[in-house]
Design brief:
With 404 residues, the chain is α/β, with parallel strands linked by helices. 38% of the residues lie in helices and 12% in strands. It folds into two domains: 150 residues, Aspartate Aminotransferase, domain 1; 226 residues, Type I PLP-dependent aspartate aminotransferase-like (Major domain) (Aspartate Aminotransferase, domain 2), CATH 3.40.640. The chain starts with a helix and ends with a helix.
Amino acid sequence: MELSTRATSIPPSITLAISAKVKEMKANGENIYAFGAGEPDFATPEAISNAAIQSLRDGVTHYMPSKGTPEAREAIAKKLREENNIDCSESHISINAGAKMSINLALMAIINPNKGEEVIVPTPAWVSYKPMIELAGGVMVDVPSTVESDFKCTPDELEKAITENTKAILINSPSNPCGTMYSPEETREIAAMLEKYPDVYIISDEIYERLIYTDIEHLSFGAIPEIADRVITINGLSKAFAMTGWRIGYTCSPGNDGAVAKAMNTLQSQINTSITSFTFAAIPVALGLTEEVESMRQIFAKRATLMHDLISKWPNVECPKPTGAFYAFPKVSHYYGKTSPGGTLITDAVSFATALLDEASVAVVPGTDFGGCGDEHVRLSFACSEDNITDGVNAACEWLSKFE
């Protein structure tokens, strides 16, 4: 019996492979400095959990509308209108099982399978974008960036990738894995270029929008009137609210009277019906929190500075200062072709990360699967304690200093 090409063509996640190895090593009693986790190390704020618990106790345990409850959708629309300046209503919202599902459904809603339709993605980019585009029947076209540009692409670079087959451009700002973001001016410049291409959707992944550590403000593509009718805004509660395991994502697409959102809701009705019933009550509560979210952001900001300051001491390594999300993405390719202190020949990001874990007990994510220049880099998450950051990043520095 054979598996489908759909199943066999999708590579396993190297991030999950690293995480599994770290768990195994820790179970064996080893002390590991882990920087792989792409999730907050905080507990979900109590008010959010209490809302879901009360909903459960109230018996909200049955099937729910695929598009979400009116109260939850209006809370999301209100947040987008007031905070992001996106002109939308609850009818333009689709609530999904995590932002990953939101992206999957959005791609399925706009891509005609096996027609060669293309989605442009600036790289390095989140490892799941390419498989999701391909599962929807599309083709990913990557536009590489560099450490010198803070991993950002110019409008000209993006425009050169547009062809008659281009269906959408997918931009994630602030970025996983890069930890950098587009400024409002840069966002407007990209939007101005895209005005010339009225048939191209803009999928804007804004899951890290509340995790910004500079005076650079976040500007949603959906707030720019000239292109707003083609913007599909992706967001969710996972990152800023410490709710990764809740699996609550959402999409806003006002254009054509919310046609994309409605198509996504239809698709969702045939895939998983809806998110878990008693979690809907937590959405308005979460979106109304300010102090708890700001407190977590400030802690992440402090960690971002600490990690960057320590990585800056690594010999022969470049690393832009993280301005958003919770990742640093240092360039370590100087060490390719060299032999590690433990005798391992370093040939790429995977062998670098493997040797660093085996020899210095520091777990990072190799940048290989992020595309573009990613193989010259490794990703470190600072969603961990300051002690772990200090001890682990210093341990890596000591290991690098022993290279000949």
